[in-house]
Amino acid sequence: MSIDFTTATFRDFENIPEHNISQRAEIFYEFLNYMKSNGHMNYRLQNTTGTNSVVNVDIENEKRDYVSFVSSDYLGFTQHPKVKQAAIDGIQKYGTGTGATPLIGGYFTYHNALEEKIASFFGRKQEEAAIFTTGYTANSATLQVLMQKEDLAILDMAVHASVHEGCAFTNKKTFPHNNLEALEHILKTSENLYRTKLVIVDGVYSQDGDTSHIKEIYNLVKKYNAFLMVDDVHGVGILGKTGRGTLEDTEMLNKVDIITGTFSKTFGNLGGYVIADKKIAAILRFQSRQQIFSATAPPSSLGIIKAIELIDEEPEWREKLWWNINYFKKGLNDLGLDTGITCSAIIPVKIGDPHVTGDVGRLLIEKGVYTNPILYPAVPRKDARIRMSVTARHEKEHLDKTLNAFEDINNKLHIAKK
């Protein structure tokens, strides 16, 4: 079997018929070299400085500063002096690691404090929170323990890969993105066939930057005696009057059954959390594999507590972020570029053709702008785009430089839709 590298994506190498692991690795390695040769390898580039609006990147042994749109550190808290100091204080007091899983000796006072802080952030009590070492496992480990062969998970097609992995041991149905009619059809036809029915959606979707129809989905879920889980990793700290995310923005904060999120974006660290009824949270702490078999978060997690506090203490970061979002999006739209239906800090420039999208990524790099070309299977084959995350650390000069770069590229490649 031969693979046409000019149209191939990473998905084509997941399982190649009649190729053993060595043969599959060899042909994939050839594909990576092909991507490098045409300047489309905007992946696993080596940063030599910390996450920020401008980063130094080593590309083919050439180090250079780039305006960066590849980080979800939306409020810039990875570089906040108070957050860094809190992380340093945690290491000074507890050391660099925990040495055990949460269940058998790796649960420390700072873990308890973090549970209490994130629960309080959502107006809940400490016993209603469970924390995980990554946001990915907050989804995957939670779903694996809650959803079994007698149950049904009902997923918006655009949810994160961690949700799909978490549903490996249960029945799964998907509905087209934000399609309420399709969701109701699944709920209605499945009403008496499964023990538990759990609908899972994102608050803000990671590729288009749009939001779920939370209120309408919640009403459908309760109409058919199901449960609702919302993963709001891209909404918390950004949306809502006080930064509590999509659920605050839609006045649904105290109604959703399960809230999941991450500490790696707005809160500038690493880890994940689940907010749920105290009895469900207890199941997660004592039954999920990540809690039993994987070491828990290190003492530098104390930085997360400070970051959570800063959401209320320094709202100017969110105000700056929204100024940047509005300015940048308007500039792109004025150029005739298609930013879709985003209403968040995630701003895509939709191009369609994957090869042209790769060329745009290469030209942006040449102009000193670091972005992510997003191709199938992350998005449909004909919906390739440049995906950018705007942060509070961006200055107007960074945004203007990027807008000028897009204008030059559009004059060359004609990527505007208008």
How would you characterize the overall build of this protein?
This protein has 418 residues and is of the alpha/beta class. The chain has 3 domains: 41 residues, no CATH class; 111 residues, Aspartate Aminotransferase, domain 1, CATH 3.90.1150; 235 residues, 3-Layer(aba) Sandwich (Aspartate Aminotransferase, domain 2), CATH 3.40.640. The protein is 39% helix and 16% strand. The strands form 3 sheets. It has a 7-stranded mixed β-sheet, sandwiched between helices. Strand 5, helix 5 and strand 6 form a beta-alpha-beta unit. The protein is globular, with a radius of gyration of 22 Å. The model has no long low-confidence stretch (mean pLDDT 95).
How many distinct helices?
14
Overall tally of domains: 3
Alpha-carbon distance between the two ends? 41 Å
Mean pLDDT: 95
Main sheet record: 7 strands, mixed
Question: At the third CATH level, what is the topology name of the largest domain?
Answer: Aspartate Aminotransferase, domain 2
> Count the strands?
14
- Examine the secondary-structure arrangement and name the CATH architecture of the largest domain: 3-Layer(aba) Sandwich
Q: Structural class of the helix and strand makeup?
A: alpha/beta
Q: What is the H/E order?
A: HEEEHHEHEHEHEHEHEEHHHHEHEEEH
- How much strand content do the residues show? 15-25%
Radius of gyration: 22 Å
Helix content: 25-40%
In CATH, the homologous superfamily of the largest domain goes by the name Type I PLP-dependent aspartate aminotransferase-like (Major domain)
Shape type: globular
Query: What's the CATH class label of the largest domain?
Result: Alpha Beta
